Amino acid sequence: MTRIIAGRHGGRRLAVPDDGTRPTSDRVREAVFNILESRIDLDGARVLDLYAGSGALGIEALSRGAASAALVDARRRATAVIAKNLATVGAQDVGSVVTRRVADHLAGDAQIFDVVFVDPPYDLDGQVLAAELEVVAGRWLGADGIVVVERSARTPAVAVPGDLAVLVEKVYGDTRVTVLGRASGVAQ
Question: Which of 1, 65, 159, 161 is positioned for an S-S bond with 130, CB 3.0–4.6 A?
Fold first, then answer.
């Protein structure tokens, strides 16, 4: 069962698509948001959730005060579940759902976000992920924005775009969470 951990929708259960989705565990999601909330104020934040799956990361951000979330997934089953989950928590007016390949979405008209979640399938090629992170950093991430990447703990470390730096990297069971921010904002 996937549920919202905290905030105004805390405790609400979320549906999970039945095909090709690996939901972020409650434990990992709680750790991610603890890391985020020590680095950025989510109140009023704009959030982009790539490879959204059930939408749990974006919806958790909305529950904790984010102003809006764009949730992107290529699978229609996933985006139908995301739309249902947004309606379940009453957040359909602040969450937009996009059925599109992430690479195609990133090639489109850019918007600026404060937090970007990137939680691709564990078997996504590292070079594809690196190219997507480069585009996120260059066109989609605000000056003080943060990127949260989830990967298998067994895959090589994330290739970090030149103007981003690793703020935190932790392993939780089979999941590696890498939190990135602008290199100019990292204390040396």
Answer: 159
Q: What is the dihedral of CA 120, 121, 122, 126, to 10 degrees?
A: -50
Residue 99, domain CATH = 3.40.50.150
Count CA atoms closer than 13 A to 140's CA, side-chain side. Answer: 25
| Residues contacting 161, CB < 8 A, separation 6+ | 130, 133, 134, 136, 137, 138
| Pairwise CA distance, residues 51 & 187, whole Å | 31
Domain that holds residue 53: 2-18+27-185
> How many residues are given for the chain?
188
26-77 per-position pLDDT tens digit:
789 999 999 999 999 999 999 999 999 999 999 999 999 999 999 999 999 9
pTM metric for this prediction: 0.94
